[in-house]
């Protein structure tokens, strides 16, 4: 079944179908309505006319692939974020989903992306094609009474973020998320350069010389039925006392609202700075994040290795979820670490001196190469992760780090 690129001429048809599926309100006649795909994404789809009884001018299925970069193991990798995957109601139940998602995976590979990421409405459907749940969006409800007694932090002051200082916030975000796994780099054109607008506000935390040490961003909202009057998008500080200074600033909102919703990363260091025990998970469903390895060698090469780690292993990745050659996840690779860098190449002889072999199925590879998990974690999920003991110790050390976190939904 032919899958083709969708172009500006297809945009209104695709957007009408996707907003119909996801409950958006797209009115192409409105002056503000977008008329074309973002230059930061590739859109592909299937014409209904290619299907039995399908009408001309109807798109039977479509999806957008975002061109993002994400932080991974101290480096950056190109990531294809799958958004707006939809099958026309007239063509559901005929197997188009698998055709389209397989084409998405192949296209990510053709575009040089090392991993793909998505927010599934139905994880089991994506799991069949090698996507693995690696994170979930998390928010805490924090009572402001917990934050009111935080003492002032010396040598720190707060300044409002303006259009002029927004680049400094973005720079801080890059630096403070550089050692995370999975955080989007937030680059144009998918992320605009200026202030986000729509009530978004932020403060930078500085020292006396004007050097930035953290920031807090939020949107004030009318209190929801749970009594939450402030959505805190990000609270990122360089040190624990920087995070305390930002939490103290949050406490100042206690005269107008009792609770804030604080979006956090997986095992966010802010949890260690919260002075009270009253925080609880937000009652809204936490969206799942799934990722899939597209190019095993590129995913590994992008990372930094621990400085002291040295050695080589054979890594075999098995992937029966997409046709062979559609992407570069499967194969046998030689993976070495030396002086903080990683070499990873398809195996082509010369395998003397290896610590041993690690064998992963695509699910285990998609889980483990995002970092922060061990081979034992993969086995606990009943994924295939078999290894010679020394090779397992090596790969676990190579991939150690924080569990993945993603703070941008798409
Ligand atoms: C979800 C959706 C993409 C599935 O597309 P489709 O072409 O109808 O799916 P297929 O016919 O290829 O079916 C693939 C499998 O998914 C299953 N499936 C399809 N829709 C499902 C649903 N709503 N719930 C559970 N399983 C579903 C099918 O039973 C099939 O499984 P099987 O192979 O074991 O029979 C389509 O229903 C749709 O566009 N829904 C609205 C938008 C949406 O949810 N997009 C996904 C966003 S992440």
Kindly report the name of the CATH homologous superfamily of the largest domain: Gcn5-related N-acetyltransferase (GNAT)
Number of domains: 3
Report strand order across the widest sheet.
1-2-3-4-5-14-6
Largest sheet: 7 strands, mixed
Overall mean pLDDT:
96
The residue fraction in helices comes out at 10-25%
Contiguous low-pLDDT stretches (5 residues minimum) are: none
Which characteristics define this entry?
Aminopeptidase, 3 domains, 7-stranded mixed β-sheet, binds coenzyme A, 410 residues, alpha+beta, Nonspecific Lipid-transfer Protein, Chain A
Give a description of the structure.
The structure is a single chain. The protein is an alpha+beta fold. It has three domains: 4-113, Aminopeptidase (3-Layer(aba) Sandwich); 138-281, 3-Layer(aba) Sandwich (Aminopeptidase), CATH 3.40.630; 290-399, Nonspecific Lipid-transfer Protein, Chain A. Helices cover 22% and strands 30% of the residues. Helix 2 links the parallel strand 4 and strand 5. The longest helix is centred in the first third of the chain and has 15 residues, at 8-22. It is globular. The structure holds coenzyme A. Coenzyme A (COA) is lined by residues 21, 85-87, 92-98, 120-122, 125.
How would you sum up this structure in a few lines?
With 410 residues, the protein is of the alpha+beta class. The protein has nine helices and 19 strands. It has helices spanning 8-22, 96-110, 123-127, 166-177, 240-251, 296-301, 362-368, 375-380, 389-399, and strands at residues 4-5, 41-47, 59-72, 75-87, 115-118, 132-136, 138-143, 157-160, 200-206, 212-220, 228-237, 259-264, 280-281, 288-293, 311-318, 331-338, 341-346, 357-361, 385-387.
